[in-house]
Write a structure and sequence with these properties.
The chain is globular. It has one domain: 3-Layer(aba) Sandwich (Rossmann fold). Helix content is 42%, strand content 21%. By secondary structure, the chain is α/β, with parallel strands linked by helices. The chain contains 7 helices and 7 strands. A 7-stranded mixed β-sheet has the order 3-2-4-5-1-6-7, with helices on both faces. Strand 6 and strand 7 form a beta hairpin. Helix 4 packs across helix 6. Pathway: Cofactor biosynthesis; adenosylcobalamin biosynthesis; adenosylcobalamin from cob(II)yrinate a,c-diamide: step 5/7; Cofactor biosynthesis; adenosylcobalamin biosynthesis; adenosylcobalamin from cob(II)yrinate a,c-diamide: step 6/7. InterPro entries: CobU/CobP (IPR003203), P-loop_NTPase (IPR027417). It catalyses: adenosylcob(III)inamide phosphate + GTP + H(+) = adenosylcob(III)inamide-GDP + diphosphate; adenosylcob(III)inamide + GTP = adenosylcob(III)inamide phosphate + GDP + H(+); adenosylcob(III)inamide + ATP = adenosylcob(III)inamide phosphate + ADP + H(+). Pfam families: CobU (PF02283).
Amino acid sequence: MGKVILITGPARSGKSELAETLALESGKAVVYVATATENPNDQEWHQRIQQHQKRRPQDWVTLSVPVELSTTLADAKPNTCLLVDSLGTWVANLLEEDEISWENTLFELLETVEMVAADMIFVAEETGWGVVPAYPLGRTFRDRLGSLVRQLSRICEAVYLVTGGHVLNLSVLGSPLPAPKS
């Protein structure tokens, strides 16, 4: 298994910028795995995507992977660093899956991460620090992303929290909880 890093935090905190810095520091060829899809009718979304693209070095390869994340990770070459931005968008892209399908997708992703020889940096949003969403789909998103982040963090070499313009290395400052009981 390659080096696996998880970066989490609220919106506009600098998660992606930290991930980009760590990817550059890896010294490996970087493959940027974008889970978002462009919507030509949403100019603001297009501008956000362009902002991310402008920060990336020209020699980085970018893959658009809204759903098939496990397959993309499994195909990675050992001498690369994959930067997956973001898990929240990936979860949102799969919200239509029923619970059994989602659990299978999650299991497949976690199993794949443990088998890949490439380095991987995952960016994930923190969603559960506010009020409980008023709608079932919002609660499903929050719960699925929270569970994914918790389970992925158990197999990461480092977990960072970016908030308030600061980076905290949770792997140094804290200790992981035991695996949840099924």
